[in-house]
Amino acid sequence: TSERAALYRLISRRAAEGCAVLFTEHDMEAVFAHADRIAVLHQGRLIAQGTPDAIRANPDVRAAYLGNSDVDG
Q: Which of 34, 42, 50, 72 could form a disulfide with 54 if both were Cys (CB 3.0 to 4.6 A apart)?
């Protein structure tokens, strides 16, 4: 949606200004596109944290959220 696109533009601007930005998102492709560090919760527990590449490759995250298919960068 246009609201979502506007939010992501705002997040990008604030991050470029050096501001820390915390947001919650279930769309993993959006997370990979807009975050430089990610913490992943599953059933209320932290299962992983790191860069988008590390999260994308993490087997616990893949099992919980990404399924068994490959996710391209």
A: 50
